[in-house]
Amino acid sequence: MSGRPNIGGIRSAFAPWEDPAKAPLVQYEAVSKAFGDTPAVRDVSLSIYEGEFFALLGPSGCGKTTLMRLLAGFEQPDAGRVLLGGRDIAGDPPHRRPVHMMFQSYALFPHLSVAQNIAFGLKRQGAARAEIDARVEEMLALVRLEGLGRRRPDQLSGGQRQRVALARALAPRPRILLLDEPMAALDKKLREETRFELMSLQQSLGMTFLIVTHDQDEAMVVADRIAVMREGAIVQVGRPAEVYEAPADRYVAGFIGDVNLFEGRVAASGDGRVRLLSPEGAFEAEGAGPVGETAWIAVRPEKVAVHTEAPAGGVNVLEGAILDYGYLGDWTTYLVEVAPGGRTLRAARANATRTVERPLGCGDRVWLSFAPSSAVVLTR
Amino acid sequence: MRRRGLAALLPILWLAIFFAFPFLLVARLSLSDSALAMPPYTPQIDWGQGLAGLSAFLAALDGETYARLAQDRLYLDAWLSSLRIAGTAAALLLLVGYPIAYGMARCPSRVRQVLVMAVILPFWTSFLIRIYAWIAILKPAGLLNAALGAVGLPRIDILNTEAAVLLGLVYAYLPFMVLPLYAVLDRQDDSLIEAAEDLGCTSMQAFWRVTFPLSLPGAAAGALLCFIPMAGEFVIPDLLGGSETLMLGRVIWTEFFANRDWPAASAVAIVLLATLVIPILLWERQQAKVLR
Questions:
Q1: Domain tally for chain B?
Q2: Region A240-267: what's the mean pLDDT?
Q3: Under CATH, what is the fold of the domain A7-98+175-250?
Q4: Are A72 and B196 an interchain contact pair (Cβ–Cβ within 8 Å)?
Q5: What percent of chain A has pLDDT over 70?
Q6: What is the pLDDT of residue B37?
């Protein structure tokens, strides 16, 4: 990774996966699992490190939940091994694994109070009464539900129930906390607040979190690393910025964020630059590709500049007309038709000021450009 | 609003004609003078005198029949015995019905539908025939003793005993216990069990700490659904219980058809309603409030 440019920003120096001396907390070794004839997980190998916030990201049915349930013990692998702290936990039933899960439905026990729900795992561990009470209070304070210990789950709001589920899974101090779509049932605003709460919680506790989500924004915000899954297999593992700025293939590029793709033939490759000949023209991007073969250049909408006059010189310029645009408040997204009857590209512009002298509208003639360093070449 | 009023009219009319009116007739009979005769029983309303006739009628009603019930030990014994038999049968039904309902709820959904059908299936044959069939099974030279004899076991004679009544009650009322229990167990979210196991429960502990307490409303509903009609049951104790099994249903029958004492029969029916059904329904309402 040292030869690569610094992608995105780096939140902290935390990167145990780059340290060969560090042993992973969780290891999936060539794990496969099928339900009947339907394969759910195919030959997955993955390492998750102590203290990491790791996200399994993919569309529904991609096997991410099955991968998590293999670690919780609700499923057994057909092939391969699942190791926790270096030990194969294949035969261990769920109740003997020091791994706790926060369920998508929260699965709070409706006949027990909030405090009894949180104490449930502690009681099974055989903790002393006073210790349990103290831990329950601590957990209630942690998720800001002080004083609600005697309520029943159905007397709580959705957001409060979610926090009870979190506290219940955290209370017995699992070695890794599994979160199955933890925010899927919350409304958008609450979901965004909860993301940051979850992150700061994980950082302050220093615990290992594994989250399963189909929401790319969620994975990008909370996770140290993301594994993008497709049809039971892992397509790419990396920091959010790596996955976004250096996607492994067109699937990852398209699944995370918007992308403009140009398909063409590699005309030249060298010095970290690729020149691609496509029906839309010749483009240059960073990377390397096999000369003469088919490849794609991918560029994100926000890296495409919109000009009202032809930019002087330079590469990667396209002329077109605005077909449509969407004003999102913070951003405006333009759909630009680059050749008559041809394809449309997306460009996004931050609305840095409140007023624009002459706003762009439908039918306006514009020029699009992007820097070779803002685009990547994909060979898959 | 008007539409809703109209929609409510039909059940109200139905209840008025087929429940409230007959109930008032029975209540009135229970307060009439006992006489070993066919109706009409005194007092009668003399409509010719208008309201005065009505008040004269009301004044003439008395609780004399109820006083007689209180004096005769037979009625108290029958009441206690009904309570005991129905209570025992309800407990047995829970023991037998719970595993059946639990097993059904754990089956794959296609099998489940078949099993629900199988539970309901006996209703398609006559109730009387099914109870008569038990006589053929239990009688001294019946199927049961033939089977026991064939494998060299001692014969058992339980026909015309309370054991046979309990057997018949459990057999006949099983669907009413299984279906509400099944409904509750089937609705239960599987992730609750997974959460319990995830937090350290073995599957046995998960059952006792989560599945079972959450199924109690279904168990209560099933037990009440069975207990109330069982306490007043007539056919099963009459056919399988012989003369020694004393239950209120049989007492009512005897008063009506053998003794021809309609006021006494009506009074027993009212007592059954007032001392079993109404307290139970009130208790159930209270429970429902607590649960909510």
A1: 1
A2: 86
A3: Rossmann fold (3.40.50)
A4: no
A5: 95
A6: 59
Within 8 A of A94 by CB-CB distance, chain B residues are 194, 197-198
Quick check: B198 and A120 CB within 8 A?
no
Mutate which: B187, B192, B194, B198, vs A, most A CBs within 10 A:
B198
Q: Which two tokens stand for residue A31?
A: 């794990």
- Structure confidence by residue, pLDDT tens digits, B5-49: 778 888 899 999 998 999 998 888 888 877 665 666 767 777 777
Per DSSP, helices labelled H in A143-187 are 158-170
Q: In b/e form, how buried is each residue of A139-175, taking b as 16+ CB within 10 angstroms?
A: bbebbebeebbeeebeebeeebbbbbbbbbbbbbebe
Are B194 and A94 in contact (CB < 8 Å)?
yes
A93 interface with B at CB cutoff 8 Å: yes
Residue B232 to residue B235: CA distance in whole angstroms: 10
Task: Give the one of B199, B200, B214 whose C-beta lies nearest to A111's C-beta.
Answer: B214
In a domain, B28, yes or no: no
Its domain, for residue B191, covers 76-291
Q: Do B197 and A120 touch (CB under 8 A)?
A: no
Tokens for B272?
Answer: 């059954």
Answer whether 0.90 is exceeded by the pTM: no
Q: How far is CA B205 from CA A40, A123, A217, in A?
A: 30, 12, 39
Domain boundaries, given as residue ranges, for chain A: 7-98+175-250, 258-378
> Chain A: nearest CA to B285, how far in angstroms?
19
Four-residue CA torsion sign, A232, A238, A244, A249: negative
Instruction: Tell me if B200 and A109 make a contact (CB, 8 A cut-off).
Output: no
In CATH, the number for domain A258-378 is: 2.40.50.100
Amino acid at A359: P
Q: Which two tokens stand for residue B208?
A: 């006792």
CB atoms near residue B74 (< 10 Å): 12
Q: Which residue of A has its CA nearest to B212?
A: A111
Put simply, the chain A residues between 167 and 226 with a CB less than 8 A from any chain B CB are 168-169, 172
Q: How far apart are the first and last CA of chain A?
A: 20
CB contacts, 8 Å: B198 with chain A = 72-74, 94-95, 99-101, 169
- CATH for B287: 1.10.3720.10
B13 domain residue, yes or no: no
Contact of A121 with chain B, judged by CB distance below 8 Å, is answered with: yes
pLDDT value at position A5?
47
